[in-house]
Amino acid sequence: MSAVPQPQVSKERKDFYARIDTGHVAPLWEVLHELVTPKPKTPCVPVVWKWDTVLPWIMESGKLITAQEAERRVLVLENPGLRGQSRATHSLYAGLQLVLPGEIARAHRHSQSALRFIMSGDGAYTAVDGERVTMHVGDFIITPSWSWHDHGNPSKEPIIWMDVLDMPIVELLDAQFMEKFPQQSQMTTHTEGASFARYGNTMMPLNYRPRSHTSPLFWYPYERSREALATLARSLTGTLSLEEVLDRVVRHAVTLFDSGVASNASSSPLRERFKLEAAPWAMCRCTWNRSSKGSSNSSAQAMNPLSASMSVSLVRIRSPES
Question: pTM higher than 0.90 for the full model?
Fold first, then answer.
């Protein structure tokens, strides 16, 4: 193997390679064409994890191991090209976590940053650096690096969320480490929604001094996000009714997770949460056709570039049957 692949290597070279190998040295020219490639090269392959397939396995895991024993009861979503490495891609870890009624996933912190998207269940909580919030389907939560966090479920139904962490990147830098909290749960020092009240209303508190480089907001409740997306969509299109805007935004939000871990089945908890009245799809379809098929539909052409680009970004994660 060389900068230019050669069918044979001379005996002199082989002897030379054997001698330098004893000193943990190797010739670059034998591997250069594999290290520096003309095009990106990855073992990662496209993959879809279906909710209907994975959900029974998640629930079965709840019968086999407790949250206390597992520390985190998670089924890892492994890319078929990276099996055994706990990776969805070269740079991201992803998994589905289950916390049953009455359970607590004990407090700890780690150098990896995490995000969580709530897939199923309502009424469980997560606590990040002293603030506890109640989680609902569709909520988005981040856990910055080295932040104490724990989860508990005082509700009567299981809760499942998707975890995504930058584990492979942190591992690449040899910076992976964690610490367990002395108690099972951390002490709550802030009322629920305190971070939103202080930092989520476009006004900065007087004499505010950031404690870290991460966002002081860690909880993005679905209800607030949906309202913001709907308002943004209306401001960009100007031609859609509120019902049409909500229909577009929510259907696409649901389908985003259909493409990863949820299916199009009516049993999906995301779809149950985001039930909507029927609404026209003409504007959305026209925008999709315009971007990918060169449609000259007049209603699509009437949209300004900003609204068209936003619609395209939403439609790209539209489910095939919608």
Answer: no
